[in-house]
Design brief:
With 516 residues, this protein is α+β, with helices and mostly antiparallel strands. It contains ten helices and 17 strands. Strands 1, 2, 3, 5, 6, 7, 9, 10 and 11 form a nine-stranded mixed β-sheet that branches. Strands 4-8-13-12 form a four-stranded antiparallel β-sheet, with no helix packed on it.
Length: 516
């Protein structure tokens, strides 16, 4: 009798203890235990994955001859490191793949299950999963902090959800002819490594679009430093190769480069340097150090800017880019401004020396003043104090080289050519008469007209014509600065109009072949 009571008390105690344990587990008890057979979850999985009934190397429904349909969803976490030099970008995304494996159908199994079973992603090593890979990927990896970022969910009807978090460096061929006004299109292509379309078909699980209701989410939240995402396309296609037609899923990003950075760092400094080089056109041609120093400074500054553009921009192209063309043309304008002065200054000095060589010797002998007229021409304005003129006689006429009166010192006539002519025209004619020279006033070119004189001069007329020709050429060289003040700015403005119109309206062809 006593033993019977003790046995009853032990049974009651054990029953009460088990009830308390079950109550402590709460609602999760139905998740972790099979409600039909009271088998633990591990036992259910082991039963389903029994090697005698399940082979992970064999795809589902192979006995039916139907392809496996895999529904895919992509959630973009980040899109960054868009490299122009390497022509690639880095993307981090969550890849969700959903398919049905009838061999894992719990409703048809004696030891089945009726709940959604969530398991660690390592179970993917024991069941069949699609061999999906990124076609245009350089390197990829699955995150493993703190554990491998993957999961598998088994639904009672045999549907499997396989989720992975992936970071990949993906190739993105770029056409940089319009750089930095370019628009690029980068792709993310998913495909099966082994199975052709007859065995496995990919499809987007939702609408073929980017957005909260589409198959690709998170793109609208991506912020890039140099680009703006203008458009996102999602579609599926077939890829044909020697092994057959493979189903592909394609995600396209359309990127437009931000121009503000390049306007401030490249274009604006280039324009300012070109304008700075034009200041030399307003500096007197006799100021050799000032003009050479300004020209050399702008050329060296433009060279430094070109090197900076080359080092900071993409260097993997064999063709000229839009920014390279603009900087090169600006460099040409700056260098041309320096060469303009060098050429004009050299021409003036050259013509002056030639005229002086012709004027050497007693080429004119006027009896009234009875002296040799030497240094007939003073063409080099930066070495002589007079204007471009000379003294000569040719038989019955006489030409007087102007002299300075007391009211006009040589330093006062070193201005521009028009001022010097005005001063020459005001010379006292009585001074000229007192020397027995021609009486007629100076003409508009600062020279005395040829008139009959009481004296005769003997000289070579051909030399005088050559001197006159060199003088006129030297005067024209001095006027190059005046023409350059209009010509250089006009050409630069015209270049900018054509440049911006062409590159802003030109459509750049995609480096990808059309897929759809």
């Amino acid at each position: 009798m006593t033993e019977c009571w003790l046995h009853t008390l032990v049974v009651l105690a054990v029953t009460l203890f088990n009830h308390q344990i079950e109550a402590g587990r709460g609602p999760q008890s139905s998740y972790w235990r099979n409600p039909k057979t009271q088998m633990r979850f591990g036992a259910v999985v082991e039963t389903l994955l029994d090697p005698d009934h399940y082979h992970k190397y064999i795809r589902p429904d192979i006995n039916l001859g139907k392809p496996v349909k895999v529904n895919v969803t992509v959630s973009v976490t980040s899109l960054d490191r868009i490299s122009d030099n390497d022509m690639e970008y880095t993307i981090t995304f969550t890849l969700q793949q959903l398919w049905r494996d009838s061999r894992l159908d719990g409703t048809k199994s004696v030891r089945g299950y009726s709940q959604v079973l969530t398991m660690d992603g390592s179970l993917g090593n024991r069941i069949w999963v699609p061999d999906t890979y990124i076609v245009n990927s350089h390197t990829s990896f699955i995150h493993d902090v703190t554990t491998r970022n993957g999961l598998i969910r088994l639904y009672p009807n045999g549907t499997v959800l396989y989720v992975l978090r992936i970071t990949s460096r993906v190739s993105c061929p770029m056409s940089l002819h319009k750089y930095p006004m370019d628009e690029q299109m980068c792709r993310l292509t998913l495909e099966s490594w082994s199975f052709a379309e007859t065995d496995l078909q990919y499809k987007w699980s939702k609408k073929e679009e980017c957005g909260p209701d589409g198959s690709v989410t998170g793109v609208e939240k991506v912020v890039l430093s140099q680009f703006n995402i203008t458009k996102c396309l999602v579609y599926r296609t077939l890829h044909q190769n020697i092994l057959g037609n493979h189903s592909q899923l394609i995600l396209e990003f359309y990127l437009k480069r931000n121009m503000l950075f390049f306007l401030l760092q490249t274009y604006l400094p280039s324009v300012l340097l070109v304008i700075l080089s034009w200041i030399s056109f307003w500096i007197n041609m006799k100021s050799v150090p000032a003009r050479v120093g300004l020209g050399a400074t702008t050329v060296l500054s433009m060279t430094t800017l070109m090197i900076g553009v080359y080092n900071s921009g993409p260097r993997s192209t064999s063709y000229i880019k839009a920014v390279d063309f603009y900087v090169c043309v600006c460099y040409g304008f700056v260098f041309a401004a320096l060469m303009e002065y060098a050429g004009a200054h050299f021409a003036v000095r050259s013509y002056g020396k030639k005229a002086e060589q012709l004027a050497e010797g007693p080429i004119a002998n006027c009896p009234n003043n009875n002296r040799n007229l030497r240094n007939i021409s003073s063409i080099e304005s930066d070495t002589q104090d007079g204007v471009f003129s000379y003294n000569s006689c040719n038989g019955t006429s006489c030409i007087r080289r102007p002299q300075y009166d007391a009211d006009h010192s040589p330093s006062e006539v070193r201005g521009n050519f028009k001022d010097r002519l005005a001063i020459v025209k005001t010379l006292d004619e009585t001074n000229r008469r007192s020397e027995g020279l021609c009486d007629k006033p100076l003409d508009k070119f600062g020279r005395e007209e040829r008139i009959n004189c009481d004296h005769r001069c003997h000289e070579n007329p051909s030399k005088l014509n050559k001197i006159e020709n060199y003088r006129n050429r030297a005067v024209m060289m001095e006027k190059i600065d005046q023409y350059s003040r209009i010509l250089f700015p006009s050409m630069f403005v015209a270049f900018n109009i054509v440049y911006w119109w062409v590159y802003l309206t030109m459509e750049e062809k995609s480096v990808y072949p059309p897929e759809h």
